[in-house]
Amino acid sequence: MKTAEFDYELSPELIAQTPIEPRDAARLMVVERSAASISQRRFHDLPEILRPGDLLVHNESRVIPARLFGRKPTGGRVEILLLRQRADDTWETLVGGKRVREGLRLSLLDGPEGRPTGAEAEVIEAGERGMRVLAFDRPVLPLAEQVGVTPLPPYIHTPLADAGRYQTVYARAPGSAAAPTAGLHFTPELIHRLREMDVRSVFVTLHIGLDTFRPVSEERVEDHHMHTEHCSLTPEAARQINQARLEGRRIIAVGTTSVRVLETAALAAVSGELCAQACPWQAVSAFEGATDLFIYPGYEYRVVDAMITNFHLPRSTLLMLVAAFAGKELLDQAYAEALRERYRFYSFGDAMLIF
What is the pLDDT of residue 136? Predict the structure, then answer.
């Protein structure tokens, strides 16, 4: 399959630069696969669209102030983006700066032009395209909370007045370099309205890292390699998901990250000793660890019945994941309509519900 099949032209003015207020005022495109139909709603209309008994699966990962600043012994400045914790105080990072080689020690600063904090990091592994593994001399998350900056995607150029608007209202587990953006549309009031009509919620975690920032560069989709991201699905969350599946209730993933957690946990259930093949009482197994699951057309979904997602970048793994669920032809129609109707795209943009 050619990566070019997932390309499309987008006018820059359709890239949302600021979040809409209130959160649930975003437009919602409703895509029904069985009828190949597309309709237009608002996100706050969800209680009118979902069914009692539906189970929403949210990613509760919290964006950390992952953008740090450092200085080389020569005085040259570098910028560090924390991506994934490997072990203890060792992190996979993106480092912007020249000649950042293995063995180099970086002094961490309290801002872009700031003073030394006393903390240091050593480059212990150098990869391609700015990838560096850094060993910090102290726990870096507390330091990031003091001197770090919340990173925004490179296509957002307007400063964010309130960093909290790049967090979901239920964000709890720190570890992401980017927000699970489909969840940004939920408000406490909307969640309460859904609960009143017996639409339930369960929470999983996937800490978003490198692949969010990079399009697929390979000519063939199948040649792309996903970087691993840490995810977890607790035994209690697995129990609720399995109960919903057993009772015939829909499992609705909020965002592509929730999709990947669910499908990773479904594969874990299939490979488990108690269930050599998929079975109705164990759609998913509790899971914690790294996932590099790459979903693209041809993938057979095992647990997700519907998904809520934003409009994604061309040639991205996220667009490919959604195409695998909606069908490439129907998704192309939905994106063409979104362009005609001037939907807002990407992280602060509008949403779609596919079922």
Answer: 98
Q: What is the pLDDT of residue 211?
A: 65
Q: Residue 144's beta-bridge partner residues?
A: none
Q: In the block, which residue shows the tokens 């957002």?
A: 156
Could you tell me if 17 and 46 lie in one domain?
yes
Q: Which pLDDT score, from 0 to 100, does residue 227 have?
A: 85
User: Are 262 and 241 in contact, with CB atoms under 8 Å apart?
Assistant: yes
Residues 310 and 324 in one domain: yes
133 and 52 in a single domain? The answer is: no
Please identify which residue in the block is written with the tokens 């998904």.
307
Q: What is the per-residue pLDDT for 269?
A: 84
3-state secondary structure string, the chain? CEHHHHCCCCCHHHECCCCCCCHHHCEEEEEECCCCEEEEEEHHHHHHHCCCCCEEEEECEEECCCEEEEECCCCCEEEEEEEEEEECCEEEEEEECCCCCCCCEEEEECCCCCCEEEEEEEEEEECCCCEEEEEECCCHHHHHHHHCECCCCCCCCCCCCCHHHHCCCCCCEEEECCCCHHHHHCCHHHHHHHHHCCCEEEEEEECCCHHHHCCCCCCEHHHCCCCCEEEEECHHHHHHHHHHHHCCCCEEEECHHHHHHHHHHHHHHHHCCCCCCCECCECCCCEEEEECCCCCCCCCCCCCCEEEEECCCCCCHHHHHHHHHHCHHHHHHHHHHHHHCCCCECCCCCEEEEC
10-residue stretch averages of pLDDT, the chain, 355 residues long: 97 97 98 98 98 98 96 95 90 92 96 92 92 96 94 92 95 95 98 98 93 82 92 97 96 98 92 52 90 96 98 96 98 98 98 98
pLDDT of residue 212: 66
Q: Check residue 274 and give its pLDDT.
A: 45
* CATH code, domain with 134: 2.40.10.240
